[in-house]
Write a structure and sequence with these properties.
The complex is a heterodimer. Chain A is an alpha+beta fold. In chain A, strands 3, 5, 7, 9 and 10 form a five-stranded antiparallel beta sheet that branches. Chain A has a five-stranded mixed beta sheet with strand order 19-18-17-21-22. Chain A is elongated. In chain B, strands 5, 10, 13, 14, 15, 16, 17 and 18 form an eight-stranded mixed beta sheet that branches. The longest helix of chain B is centred in the first third of the chain and has 24 residues. The chains are: A alpha+beta, B alpha+beta. Chain B: Pfam families: UCH (PF00443). Chain B: This is Ubiquitin specific peptidase 18. Chain B: InterPro entries: Papain-like_cys_pep_sf (IPR038765), Peptidase_C19 (IPR050164), Peptidase_C19_UCH (IPR001394), USP (IPR028889), USP_CS (IPR018200).
Chain lengths: 952, 364
């Protein structure tokens, strides 16, 4: 090979011989790269059978084991196979030679480190012997040693993998560990592969540097010699040098080739890794979106952070390697150098990958949320504090720059008339910090608020003028976080946006704002589409039902089951609707007074459950969403007294009712329901207590609790026992000044009322009229409460028959706290029953449990209407056979015809209880029959003044 | 017609014979010595990728191994198939991870395929294949090579006035598949999975007849004037090794070539019976049941149109694993790696599939 041919395109840019000296311990430069466990260490941890194989491997004395031991890291860090393979000339084998001498030098170094202790003496001897042996054996053929070492390392690897395989086969994988998905395994595998590949590449590049330095040094010697006078000896040396230079050059070129090919290769594999990571991140974002809607999703980022950081480390290391190659290229290049064309290409490709990785690694970890309403994120109220947290998933250890995050809202607002503009108040920038508590590189914005920008000179009444095309709660705003990222020589601007937020100014908009958040995150394919509500798509039931269930799950820890959803689907789409039915946004959320939307209804029930019924709902005692028709089907087949709890479909703010089955007139099963209880009632009286004390006063029946078995057949007290307010025990323990009192609401049923047999196609409205036969019981155990009301008829207490000849209507009396408050001072131990006087008169002769009737109209503070118009019934509780232990209750039955008239008059002003949303045909109360619930205002009742002494 | 039938018969025999030989050589042709890389001799990544696709194809190497060795040193140096055979032998003997294809590169230079010139893989494939075919002196062998690679189609031109049809048989080495449909909309996949997606799939679009009107009107022999007509293609015969060429390089009006990097997914298997309608197949087309293919190789391009890099993903026919041949570096990869060459409009420098080589499924 002619030197001129090789050197033709060579452009010499000089190098210092100092670099040559640095070769003495080349492996030290590798420090700080791969922290992976050394092979030799792993080998030593193998089981005995495999250790024997290792001993076998080193028994041939090609390489003494102590050499392997002392120089383990260095040995593993050299490319021995390359040294063994490289084309070598007769006299010098560049790389193998160099490695051989370094090895000897390192053995000397090791030797000198031994002390003078006894045990060291033998070690020193052995090491010295080993060194001399090696020297003698391989002095002339260092490439043979390279070959031996290369093979030994390979063999070790083989033994290791066999050992690991056997280990894995014997030890079953820990079952407690969460199952990794296929992709997660692929990612971990791929990360390990690329990491190994980049380490390998790193070694090669360092080797290339060494070769380069050798070449530089020899070339310099060559050039110096050129000036010297010619002599045969010098000519021979020159010839040798020339050959060496050519060889060096050739191996260097093929190494460069190799490095480039492998870098291309590695980038290709990293692209797949990137695709995996982006898929995984997209899934996380989807999970986060669902979690915002209340779904139980794992939104932990720690795994993603590990992966992103790992991938970024590999790419950054590759980037450093490319720059090192670039420096070499700058020092020395030749014609058709592959680096010239390929380096820029690789650099661009790598930079693109890094940018993509970094950009996707900047995420919103916690979506904007107000601390007071943390179960419903993405709704912000002006001038209320909220927080948002961004996180960078690439957490490199050696960051040197301060990273600041800027927050802004609506960077590119949609050009929409009346679209409101906001400012973020207090501070709009914050440092990205490694938060040990949150375990991540996060930027936590807290205590920031929004303030609406009022258009200054827009003229007066600008709210009207600026009336937007979208409702306030349909206006979507994006909060953007921007990070100026710098690492080494890479500077990037990373940006991430929150999911769109709805900005409200009043708490009353909260429910409809949440409807918008639900709809957007359920249906918008583009998480940044601020104009989503310009044309909101309809929601397929399959998707909607899932989201609705999450609402219950989030608020109450119990979602909706199949039957619930079935009922809702029928309510929305009618029976037998196709499974792919979809609900429009307007039908879902738009109230159309006087009716209300599906969402308003559901939200009312959600609130009712959360505030008053949480334990019952959670334990599954509330069937809740069941149609009247279905309810009848269910109950009819059950034993009498079976009841279930159902949400009213006609109550706007959420109502719950009991329906039970009883015997009708002709002996057929008959299902009845009580007027729905709303938050007003439930605020003072718990539903289990209502159920427990529930009374049905029917004209021809003795009052009794018709609620005996919770569907399908659990005895009432067994199902609800644990929720009852414990009052009796308290009464026993406490010798109180006052007798305890309870408020029970009573409704009665008229004997004249016709019983409509079940199964008659035409449902008589009277029979199904909600609350038509009401008997409600309010119970207030504490004497201090504001409520005090009537009949102290305990369930199972002595029964009275009360024929009501005159009344052709049932009544329900509800005594408001305010007017009973008047009774408080003295009447607290009293329980009052208000009945029509004439009825009482009729009761008098025959009602044997009633022993005493006391009429004291003056005490009642009422105009004396005549002896038989107002009567007071005073009953001794014990006489009535009431189980109330030790209670010497007085009960007062009070009624006046004039009151009844008043009640009737009020009846006409009943609440309109027609279902405004979707009136099912069998659910509608007939218009001609007055609805029963009567709420008496304080002044409807004559003032009552009862002195407790009067009754003693 | 008669002639064609004869051709078919001899073809069947050839297939049988080939199968026997294949079995005899099984495990010899590809990956005999592990996968060996080829050093980049100077922008020769494109050549290297194509060579690997050739060498890994056992059906091709069976032919290559049977060529007549040219007589005379100079002839040998000039013979592309012979130099390829030598290179194949060298790769199979090599103890190194990669070899230098310098003799072959030198030989190609003689035939005007120079090093240090950026070639388009589709173009280079065509040139290389023609060189090989023309230099195989054995007529029968050359014929086998032709049948192994060429697609036979019938082009037709139907006058819309009188329905007069003009046809022409032609051979193609690759199917140049469009990335956009006739109304310049992006195509979404190589093969649509359902009927309604056909409008968005590239293969369907390729066989869709085109209406020639206005300036493009053709002379109808029957009407004896220029009429608007329908131009299209009917498939007559598909070869064992079917090469598809995604037209990712896009010449705008300027001389500036642009690369289209957006995603065009392809599948691991193709069934032309489900892709083509009755009208898109030639009535004489036989062996339609055999029009079932498995993906064999993907030649992927990374970088821009002006400066880029090629590598080849090849599924070994002997061990059925995917390998990536990146010049001197070869490694085993997964189908996910191949999938990441679907392309992505967000990345301009990433790897995108450019040539897809499908192999006919084995008759069993």
């Amino acid at each position: 090979m002619n030197p001129v041919e090789q050197g033709a395109g060579l452009s010499w840019r000089g190098c210092s011989s100092g670099q040559w000296l640095a070769l003495a311990a080349p492996w030290q430069r590798g420090a700080g790269t791969a922290p992976s466990m050394a092979q030799w260490q792993e080998v030593q941890q193998l089981e005995k059978a495999y250790l024997d194989q290792v001993h076998q491997l080193y028994s041939d004395d090609h390489l003494p084991m102590e050499v392997r031991q002392y120089l383990a890291p260095w040995l593993e860090d050299q490319n021995w196979s390359q040294a063994a393979e490289l084309p070598v000339s007769e006299s010098h084998s560049s790389q193998a030679h160099m490695l051989f001498h370094t090895l000897l030098a390192m053995l000397d170094d090791q030797y000198s480190r031994f002390g003078t202790r006894q045990e060291d003496f033998v070690l020193k001897h052995n090491l010295r012997k080993s060194k001399l042996n090696l020297q003698a054996k391989y002095q002339e053929r260092p490439e043979e040693l390279a070959n031996v070492i290369a093979n030994l390392l390979l063999e070790e690897k083989a033994i290791l993998s066999r050992g690991h395989a056997a280990q894995q086969a014997t030890a079953p994988p820990p079952s407690s560990a969460p199952m990794e998905t296929d992709r997660q395994q692929k990612i971990s595998g791929r990360l390990a592969e690329t990491r190994a590949a980049v380490q390998e590449l790193d070694r090669t590049v360092r080797h290339l540097e060494e070769l380069q330095d050798t070449f530089d040094f020899r070339y310099k010697v060559h050039r110096m010699a050129e000036g010297a006078p010619a002599s045969p000896e010098l000519a021979r040396q020159m010839g040798q040098l020339q050959v060496l230079l050519n060889n060096l050059d050739r191996s260097r070129k093929s190494l460069w080739q190799d490095v480039l090919a492998r870098a291309q290769e590695l980038l290709g594999r990293c692209e797949t890794l990137r695709d995996f990571l982006l898929e995984e991140l997209a899934e996380w974002k989807e999970r986060q979106r669902k979690a915002c809607l209340g779904a139980p999703c794992d939104t932990s980022l720690s795994l993603l952070e590990t992966w992103f950081t790992g991938a970024a480390e590999v790419l950054f290391q590759l980037w450093r390697l490319l720059r090192a190659l670039g420096e070499q290229h700058a020092k020395l290049t030749y014609q058709h150098d592959p680096l010239t064309a390929q380096l820029p290409l690789l650099d661009s490709r790598l930079r693109e990958q890094l940018c993509c990785l970094m950009k996707s690694a900047f995420v919103v970890e916690v979506q904007p949320v107000m601390p007071l309403f943390n179960w419903r994120p993405l709704i912000l109220k002006t001038s209320n504090k909220f927080s948002v947290r961004a996180r960078l998933l690439v957490k490199l250890q050696d960051r040197s720059h301060q990273l600041e995050v800027e927050i802004s809202i609506d960077k590119d607002p949609p050009s929409l008339k009346g679209f409101r503009k906001f400012n973020i108040l207090t501070s709009t920038s914050k440092l990205l910090q490694d938060n040990a508590q949150l375990d991540g590189l996060v930027c936590d914005f807290r205590h920031i608020t929004l303030k609406e920008q009022r258009a200054g000179g827009a003229g007066k009444g600008n709210r009207g003028a600026n009336e937007g095309l979208l409702a306030v709660t349909e206006e979507l705003h994006l909060i953007t976080l921007t990070l100026k990222y710098k690492y080494q020589e890479l500077a990037l601007e990373l940006q991430t946006s929150t999911l769109p937020v709805v900005i409200i100014s009043s708490s009353s908009q909260f429910a409809s704002a949440w409807a918008a958040v639900l709809w957007f995150n359920m249906l918008s394919p583009d998480p940044k589409n601020q104009l989503f509500f310009s044309a909101p798509p309809a929601a397929p039931w399959a998707q909607l039902s899932e989201v609705l269930s999450w609402q219950f799950l989030a608020a109450t820890e119990r979602g909706l089951d199949k039957e619930h959803l079935q009922m809702l689907a029928e309510k929305l789409f009618g029976p037998g609707a196709p499974p792919n039915s979809a609900l429009t946004w307007a039908k879902f959320s738009k109230d159309d007074p006087p009716s209300f939307s599906f969402w308003t209804w559901l939200e009312g029930i959600l609130n009712l459950i959360r505030d008053h019924l949480a334990p019952l709902w959670k334990d599954g005692h509330i069937m809740g969403f069941v149609s009247r028709k279905r309810e009848r089907q269910l109950l009819k087949r059950k034993q009498m007294g079976t009841f279930l709890l159902r949400f009213s479909e006609s109550t706007r703010d959420g109502g719950i009712t009991c329906s039970w089955v009883e015997l009708g007139e002709k002996g057929q099963p008959k299902v009845r329901s009580v007027e729905p209880y709303t938050k007003v009632e439930l605020a003072s009286l718990q539903l289990p207590d209502i159920i427990h004390d529930y009374q049905l006063l029917a004209a021809e029946n003795i009052p009794e609790n018709p609620l005996k078995f919770l569907y399908p057949g659990t005895p009432r007290d067994q199902a609800f026992g644990k929720y009852y307010t414990e009052r009796r025990e308290a009464d026993l323990l406490e010798q109180k000044k006052y007798l305890n009192r309870r408020l029970i609401r009573v409704s009665s049923r008229q004997p004249s009322e016709s019983w409509i047999p079940e199964g008659v196609g035409l449902e008589a409205p009277a029979a199904e009229q909600p609350g038509a036969n009401h008997l409600e019981a309010l119970d207030v155990p504490e004497p201090g409460a504001n409520y005090l009301a009537a009949p102290g008829l305990e369930p199972g207490a002595n029964h009275q028959e009360m024929p009501e000849p005159g009344a052709n209507r049932l009544e329900m009396l509800e005594l408001e706290a305010s007017h009973l408050g008047m009774l408080e001072p003295g009447a607290s131990p009293l329980e009052m029953l208000e009945l029509e006087a004439s009825h009482l008169g009729m009761l008098e002769p025959g009602a044997n449990p009633l022993e005493m009737l006391e009429l004291e109209a003056s005490h009642m503070g009422m105009p004396e209407p005549g002896p038989n118009r107002l009567e007071m019934l005073e009953l001794e509780a014990s006489h009535l056979g009431m189980p109330e232990p030790g209670a010497n209750h007085l009960e007062m039955l009070e009624l006046g015809t004039n009151h009844l008239e008043m009640l009737e008059a009020l009846n006409m002003m009943r609440f309109d209880s027609s279902d405004p949303f979707l009136p099912p045909p069998d659910d509608a109360p007939p218009p001609e029959l007055p609805g029963p619930p009567l709420f008496l205002a304080a002044d409807d009742m004559p003032p009552l003044q009862v002195d407790s002494t009067d009754f003693q | 017609m008669r002639k064609e039938e004869d051709g078919e018969e001899s073809r069947e025999q050839a297939v049988k014979r080939g199968g026997k030989q294949l079995r005899a050589l099984h495990g010899v042709a590809d990956l005999n010595n592990g996968a060996i890389g080829l050093y980049n001799m100077g922008l020769s990544c494109c050549l290297n990728s194509l060579l690997q696709v050739f060498f890994m194809n056992t059906h091709f190497t069976v032919i290559l191994r049977r060529i007549r060795v040219p007589i005379g040193h100079a002839e040998q140096k000039k013979s592309v198939p012979y130099q390829m055979l030598l290179l194949l032998e060298q790769m199979q003997r090599s103890k190194q991870r990669a070899v230098y294809p310098q003799e072959l590169a030198h030989c190609l230079t003689v035939h005007n395929l120079k090093l240090f010139v950026q070639y388009d893989a589709a173009q280079l494939f065509l040139s290389l294949w023609n060189l090989i075919k023309n230099q195989i002196t054995d007529w029968e062998l050359a014929d086998r090579l032709t049948r192994l690679y060429t697609i036979r189609v019938q082009e037709y031109l139907i006058c819309e006035k009188c329905s007069f049809e003009t046809t022409r048989e032609s051979n193609m080495l690759t199917l140049p598949l469009p990335m956009f449909n006739s109304s310049s909309q992006r195509l979404k996949t190589l093969v649509g999975s359902a009927l309604q997606q056909y409008a968005e799939d590239s293969l369907h679009c390729f066989f869709q007849p085109e209406q020639l009107t206005d300036n493009n009107m053709c002379l109808c022999e029957q009407c004896e004037r220029k009429t608007s007509c329908l131009q299209g293609m009917r498939l007559t015969c598909l070869p064992q090794t079917l090469t598809l060429h995604l037209k990712r390089f896009y010449f705008k009006k300027s001389t500036w070539t642009q690369k289209i990097s957006y995603s065009l997914p392809f599948s691991q298997s193709l069934d032309f019976n489900q892709i083509l309608t009755q009208e898109q197949c030639h009535p004489d087309a036989k062996e339609k049941a055999d029009w079932q293919y498995d993906l064999f190789a993907v030649v992927a391009h990374s970088g821009l149109a002006s400066c880029g890099h090629y590598c080849a993903y090849i599924r070994s026919l002997t061990d059925c694993r995917w390998y990536c041949f990146n010049d001197s570096s070869v490694c085993q990869v997964s189908w996910d790696d191949v999938k990441s060459t679907y392309g992505n409009s967000r990345f301009h420098w990433g790897e995108t599939a450019y040539l897809l080589v499908y192999m006919r499924k084995n008759p069993q």
